[in-house]
Specification:
9-stranded mixed sheet; alpha/beta; 4-stranded parallel sheet; 12 helices
Length: 449
């Protein structure tokens, strides 16, 4: 089979150095094994019972498994590793930093590890941000804290030449970029610039997007913690709404383009009645708009909970036209917008409603990672180190079908991941909330009495 996505992983060169990690090369001897470049998995496992089931795949159409290799590319005593965290905060950043440092130090005996402060801007000479030297003692207990000891910032990733100059000047051998799609696009451009200069520098990405919207990534770290924290906010909103007259609990969560946090929170918390996400547009007024369905809910149960992703309702609220330092469009506050619109609508109807609006976004972003995310971050960090030491580059560490794999950066940033409105996740959300399949008037079908 010759068509399909090319998952081949770039490499800096032939691996000739025996790994300092002692593992087995034999199956069935009850010792942990090295991973071979020939160990691969399918990305797409869905199929139908029609047609030829004996399909063959080119090697570059299979995802390469992550893990320690028997031979490595870099001589550990000559390595200078650097770590940078970019973009907004997310639960688990410190956990990943700690895992990378500890694996470099203890497993590969790499002693020169530098943290770049305040994202890509830390590479720029005029920033004045000094690098932070890292070792196991410095990162000893940072996994218990939210945020990042390296601090994080948006912007600077487009200054590729200057970043590459700084990497070359600092004699960095491998760079670990922890961030979302913008961060990884920048990392890819930097890696390509370093390659043009003939420099053998590994650039490995660890995907960080609290919205869980990176393609070819089963789950981004921090997402599980975000849903856990969002559930607490929804629980509070439900209590507030339930214990007053026609109470409406309104909660806004992250999700600029993709509504995964809202969808998963709605499933985890059975008290959500309306889940509004960017992928599914809705009307407010009219025979099939949000307001008429909300009124029916209030007349029937005296309370309702609305969970909205920050990027939902763009056709209703419009855009600011402004951009942040990462190039993202600044969004208007859909939560406050809905609060005002609901209040005004029911005031005109002469119906009393009591609206409680909760925006837990920054509390969620700054929370320490929960146990599930903490485990995940530890494993992501270690696999990133194994990939870098083996000479892989322009590569993201990903989880696919519960297996850690290498994904080319160019593939991962090629498209964004969205909630599939025809898929099983959104179908389950609709069944759980019992909201209409659509709240657009042009899809309204009048039901006979």
């Amino acid at each position: 089979m010759s068509s399909g996505t090319d998952y081949s992983i770039p490499s800096l060169g032939e691996r000739k150095i025996p790994s300092p990690i002692k593992m087995s090369t034999e199956e069935g001897d009850n010792f942990a094994n090295y991973v071979s470049d020939h160990e691969k998995i399918l990305y797409t496992i869905e199929s139908t019972d029609q047609g030829d089931s004996g399909a063959c795949f080119d090697s570059n159409q299979l995802l390469e498994k992550a893990g320690p290799r028997e031979k490595i590319y870099f001589a550990p005593q000559h390595v200078h590793a650097a770590i940078v965290t970019c973009g907004g905060l997310c639960p688990g950043l410190n956990n990943v930093i700690r895992a990378v440092v500890r694996c470099l130090w203890y497993r590969y005996k790499i002693r020169r590890i530098t943290g770049i402060q305040n994202g890509y801007r830390g590479f720029l000479p005029e920033s004045g941000f000094k690098p932070l030297e890292l070792d196991p003692e410095i990162v000893d207990d940072i996994q218990t804290k939210g945020g990042t000891i390296l601090k994080s910032a948006r912007g600077g990733g487009d200054r590729v030449i200057e970043i590459a100059d700084a990497i070359e000047r600092m004699n960095i051998s491998m760079l670990f970029t922890i961030g979302g799609d913008g961060t990884q696009r920048g990392a890819l451009e930097v890696a390509e610039e370093l390659e043009k200069r003939g420099l053998k520098i590994s650039v490995i990405g660890i995907p960080k997007t609290i919205d869980n919207d990176l393609s070819f990534i089963q789950r981004s770290f921090g997402f599980d913690t975000a849903v856990t924290e969002a559930v607490n906010a929804v629980s509070a909103a439900h209590t507030e709404a339930h214990d007053t007259i026609n109470g409406v609990g309104l909660v806004k969560v992250m999700g600029r383009e993709s509504g995964f946090i809202a969808a998963h929170t709605a499933l985890a918390m059975g008290d959500v009645n309306f889940c509004l996400i960017p992928e599914s547009e809705f009307d407010l007024d009219g025979p099939n708009g949000l307001f008429i369905h909300l009124k029916r809910r209030l007349l029937d149960r005296n309370h309702a909970v609305i969970l909205v992703a920050e990027g939902a309702g763009k056709s209703q609220i419009g855009e600011t036209g402004e951009k942040d330092l990462s190039g993202n469009i600044r969004l208007k506050d859909i939560g406050f917008f809905l609060k005002e619109k609901i209040r005004d609508h029911f005031s005109r109807e002469g119906m009393e409603v009591n609206i409680k609006y909760i925006d837990p976004s920054y509390m969620i972003r700054s929370a320490p990672a929960n146990p599930n995310d903490s485990i995940y971050c530890s494993r992501l960090g270690a696999h990133a180190v194994h990939a870098a030491v083996a000479g892989k580059t322009k590569t993201l560490i990903s989880l696919v079908h519960d297996l850690f794999v290498h994904v080319p950066m160019r593939v991962a940033v090629s498209k964004r991941r969205y909630v599939d409105l025809e898929g099983n996740l959104w179908r389950d959300v609709l069944e759980n909330t019992r909201q209409p399949v659509s709240m657009k008037n042009d899809t309204y079908i009048h039901e006979e009495d």
